[in-house]
Design goal:
The protein is an alpha+beta fold. It has helices at about 5-10, 20-30, 35-45, 55-65, 130-139, and strands at about 70, 80-85, 90-95, 100-105, 125-130. It is globular.
Amino acid sequence: MTTVELTDKMRRAGLRPSAQRLAIMQYLEMFRTHPSADEIYKALLPEFPSMSLTTVYNTLHALVGSGLLREVEIEPANLRFDSASTPPHGHFRCRCCGRIFDMPLPDGIILENMPGGFAVDSLDLYLKGTCPDCTTARD
């Protein structure tokens, strides 16, 4: 996504598109690794040496609050972040290497089977196991 598109997206969500907010959004759009706030901070520090970890946390919470990001809480006390622009999907965390992968969901399978009267505004599906790389390494 371009800087102009991200700027428009932020403005539509009611956020001021500061340079640091844009950099965080661009990082999350470019690297679909579900990074933690600390990983984002370390990656962007060379470009923004005066940026604090608190700024990253505040920005991430503002972006989540506006609906532009999603929190992924697949591990207790270790929030990760994911772009909200991706279609609904699950997450798989490898117990060996710790990486988190997007897992596609069949179209509508969960929402089509919801009993009447329920209004779903969030869907979180977390799977845990061993990724192909770690499985191959163990064999």
